[in-house]
Amino acid sequence: MDETGRRQLSPTGPRGADRTATEGPTWQRGAETRQGAYGRYAQVYDRVWGRAPYHRFVDLCLEEAQGPVRRVVVAACGTGNAVRELARRGYRVAGFVLSATMLEQAATKRRPGLPMGFVRADMRAIPFADGAADLVVTLNTSINYLLEAEEVVTALAHLGRVAGPGGTVVVEPLSERFLYAGFEPNRHVVEGGLSLDASYEVHGDLLAEHVRWRVDDVEVVETYWQRWYGDDRLDRMFAAAGLEVVGRRAMWPSIPEEPARGRTLWVAVP
Q: What is the DSSP letter of 12?
């Protein structure tokens, strides 16, 4: 993708205002806010989540598009799995992420001939032109790493601006089921030299994800925070961002795996 195309269509989404903390339901607006979460975790992220059914996530997003799709932006794209899947299907796709280390991992998935690109960017200030994409997607509860409602509204407004008239925005927010049940199969992973444990704590409407892993006798511990927004509040935030919610698509049973239960895609148009 050339530089002109990158300005028109390319996001590398970070986990937006992801904060990384070490203890307690508090945080500081410092380097983590500017750099995005999942810093060191990027090194093992795909070993934990790489087998997730991204092809089915992509299927559902495409099925919910309200018009023809040629250009797709994946906001907060993580290590680029959804971007790669869309590019393999021939869509012109760009992913953006705030975390530099997640971006590095995503960049390794670029292949000659695939119409895909990545850029480091923030959901609160997306560097793409108005109407640059026909479909804008953000999965894996990325919007919930924005811990203030005003930040969420700003991010949603940018997603809608990039989709433009005739475009579609698909957002997967944090589900209430995950908030209280977590994702058991990925709480404990021992495989190929990796030992990982993840645990979750709820502090009111804040969810703390504590991740501890060891590779080659090097141990890392990180904590990430998300804020849960209920359906009524999400409705108000979408409206405040100038987006009309036109549907909510349950992932399960279309995706029959247990982790899809309770997860929902919110579909909106500018």
A: B
